[in-house]
Every structure is written in C-alpha cells, then in structure tokens.
Design brief:
Elements lengths: L2 H19 L3 H13 L5 H7 L12 H15 L3 H7 L5 H11 L1 H4 L15 H14 L4 E6 L13 E4 L2 E4 L6 E2 L2 E3 L10 E8 L8 H9 L6 H16 L4 E3 L2 H10 L7 E7 L7 H17 L6 E9 L4 E9 L3 E8 L5 E4 L2
Parallel strand pairs: 1-6, 1-8, 2-4, 5-12, 6-7, 8-9
Antiparallel strand pairs: 2-3, 9-10, 10-11, 11-12
Length: about 350
C-alpha cells in the first residue's frame, strides 16, 4: 500500500467515526466498508485511492462524495440489496462491497464535485447571527451567500425559528427550525432581508427530480429529521426560487462587494461549511474583498461577515460575526455541524 492509498483509507475511517459520533451508524459502516474494500480494479476505486488532492473532511471530502453516490444508488431502486441495508434490514457491509463493483459507472461522477451545502437546518444559526447584526444595526439587509448550492440556506427568510425561545422568521412557514439550545437566546431584533443573492461553483437548480434527488442523497439515510427538513425546504424553494448563479467565490465576491451600497442598508456576506472547499487563492481574494468592504463601511452603510465553519484545530463548528465600520468581532456560538444543537455564547 502506497502513502496516498494509506492516507485515503485513513480519511474514510476517520470520517466513519465522525459520522458515528453524529448519530449515523449506517453511514459509518458504509465508509468503513469503503476503507476496507475500495479497489483499483474499478474506476471509482482507482480515482479515490490515488486522489489528486486532500481526501479529508477538511479538504476535498472525497469520503462524503462517495457516500452521496451510494445513497443515490440505494434510493434509485436499482439495487434492492443496498436499499434494504440502508433501511436497516440487511448487511450493510456486504451490500456496499457489492455496490462498489456493480455500480462503478454510476458512482464515478459523484466524485467530481464536493458535497453540496444543502443542510437547510444551518439556516437556524445564520438567522441567529442576523438577529445579532440587526440588533446592532436595525436596518434592511442585503444578504449574500458563498457556496449556496441550491440556495436552501439563502432562502432562510421563508422559514420560522425557535432559537432558545426566541421566535423569528416567517410565522406562517410550514418549516420550523428549532435546534436544541443552551445559553441565552439571541436578541429580539427585526430581520428584514430586502435582497438576497448567492453563488456556487456547481449550483443545484431545483427544476428536475434528478436535482432534488442529488440534494437528498447527501443526507445520511438513518437521520429522518434531516431528510424531512431538506424535503420541506425543497418544496419552499420550488415556490420561492433562491437567486443563485454559477461562478467562482472570489470573482463574485469582488464584483458584488464593489457595487454601491445604498444608505440605510446593511450588507452581510455569509457562508456555512463551504469556505473549506475553496482553493487557497480564492480564500485569500475573498478575505481581501471583505476587508476592503469593511474599510468602506459606515454607520449608515454597515457591513458584516457571518461564517459558520468547522475549525479542525478545535474540532468544533463555530459561528463568527464581524461587523464594520468598527470591526467588532463576535464568537456567537458553537453548534452541531448540521445545526441541530447550538451552544450560544453571544
């Protein structure tokens, strides 16, 4: 076994333990089986085992690319043995081992793109951050998102929220996001989103059943509540299409933040578990554009940077907010990666 192959198999085992810790034993078994059984005899196995890049969760996250593909096969009806295993009715390891060979051609394209940021539940932590920003600057909001995927988080104004007892959002929405909460609730402030725009390198446009299926395939099969949340968010997105365009994060950020900002409007740029997937040069350019926008901000035209990202060094997902013109920084919360639980720091 060469060094790259060992690195890849280790990444699968590490992600398996991460999934087990987050309450998905089936996904853990899927990934452990892949760690043991991936072979260079298949095109999918060959590409994964000699991955050109960082295979880990903090890099290209090739493990969850494959997990999404296998879940899609299980949901497709093309492999009843795998589908039964995903329902908890069969031998997961044996079914996955067979599927890696039998569905090689179907799995290979899933390696082309990073797992989509389709976790609509993360809108809860974004809304909490917006409440803090709106408490400081009670102004209408121009909302911008990087790594939008299908725009399910960008559509956050369409959902209703119970954030530690603080109600927010659209009170008549059929989708309620109510993460378990420790700490004080976020402030009671008016969040008025007047414009919203997003960008993604490979956006998912929810115009076909295949696109909807792609999103749901990234949800772990034994986490029914997550699946119900994303399905409800998809139904709302059909009625209220999120404005997401295809593009590179840095190009789009530079152009968007260079556009004039109206007096009496707060502009906020945010991203959720997306920044890690950007190339380093893109990250650097985004940061430079953000700093320039912050330097140009005024009390009448404030600017905010809201991020919910995984800190590998701390092994935690943290919600951070920076507000200009003062540049004040807030570590608002630590939260479950899917935002199902939140520890609020304020």
């Amino acid at each position: 076994m060469n060094e790259k192959e060992a690195e890849v198999r280790k990444a699968f085992r590490q992600q398996a333990e991460f999934c087990r810790g987050l309450g998905s034993p089936i996904t853990a078994e899927v990934l452990n089986t892949a760690a043991d059984k991936l072979s260079g005899d298949t095109e999918t196995g060959k590409r994964i085992l000699f991955w050109d890049g960082d295979p880990t969760a903090g890099g290209d996250n090739v493990t969850l690319r494959l997990a999404g593909g296998l879940h899609a096969v299980a949901r497709s009806g093309d492999d009843e043995r795998l589908a039964a295993a995903y329902r908890g009715e069969g031998d997961v390891s044996a079914a996955v081992e067979a599927a890696l060979v039998e569905h090689d051609a179907a799995l290979l394209p899933w390696l082309d793109t990073a797992p989509q940021t389709n976790e609509a539940g993360r809108a809860a932590v974004v809304m909490a951050g917006l409440l803090v920003a709106a408490d400081r600057f009670p102004l209408p909001i121009d909302l911008l998102e990087l790594g939008s995927s299908a725009g399910l988080v960008l559509n956050l104004a369409r959902y209703r929220y119970d954030l530690g007892g603080r109600e927010a959002g659209e009170p008549t929405s059929p989708l309620l996001l109510k993460p378990s909460w420790t700490g004080a609730p976020p402030p009671d402030a008016p969040v008025d989103i007047i414009t919203q725009h997003g960008v993604d390198r490979s956006p998912v446009y929810l115009s076909t059943p295949a696109a909807e299926e792609r999103l749901t395939a990234y949800i772990w099969p034994d986490q029914r509540q997550r699946l119900e949340t994303v399905e409800a968010a998809i139904r709302l997105a059909r009625a209220f299409t999120p404005p997401v365009i295809q593009g590179e994060a840095a190009d789009w950020t530079e152009k968007r933040l260079a556009q004039p900002q109206a007096d009496g409007v707060m502009r906020i740029l945010f991203h959720t578990i997306a920044f890690q997937y950007f190339p380093d040069d893109q990250k650097d350019r985004v940061r430079v554009a953000i700093e320039a926008a912050g330097a140009a901000a005024t009390e009448d035209r404030p600017f905010g940077w809201l991020s919910f990202e995984f800190d590998e060094a701390k092994n935690a997902c943290e919600l951070h907010l920076t507000l200009w013109p003062t540049g004040e920084k807030y570590h608002l919360a630590n939260a479950h990666p899917h935002a199902t639980s939140v520890s609020w720091k304020g």
